[in-house]
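Structure ticket #2291
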Amino acid sequence: MTPPSAYWAYLDRIDEKGRPVGFEVDGRPVLHSFVAASPDLAMEWLRESVRAALLDLDHAGFGAAWAWLGDHRAADRATAGLRRGSPVDFTVTTPSGCWSWRAAPVGVPLPLTCRCSAPAPPPATALRRHRGGAVLPLPSLS
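Resolution: structure written out below.
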């Protein structure tokens, strides 16, 4: 089995009515996700993100997050599981909504397994390499 080439860690938040909650800093939206080159970096981001949210949680949520952060053996087991291909999930539910963190291995390029009605991706000839190896669409000539 080929080891994953990247690990995606992210935070999803929904409010008490089940609507997604956006994140802003100085009025600009902030993406709460991180693509890491190793499971150790993905777990580090996940734990730092939970730590950063502590003061926004209610008393019970704070206690659950604090206990999760303090269980270093479980963190080591989760990192080892991530290395083997198992995702890591941590969720805190509060009266104001739900905070869900996840880290999972991904392959690059990502497989297209979505059965949604999204448009098909552009052909490979319409893509170009950008600094750092990211693949970006070529500008339209029309």
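Closing remark: The chain has three helices and eight strands.
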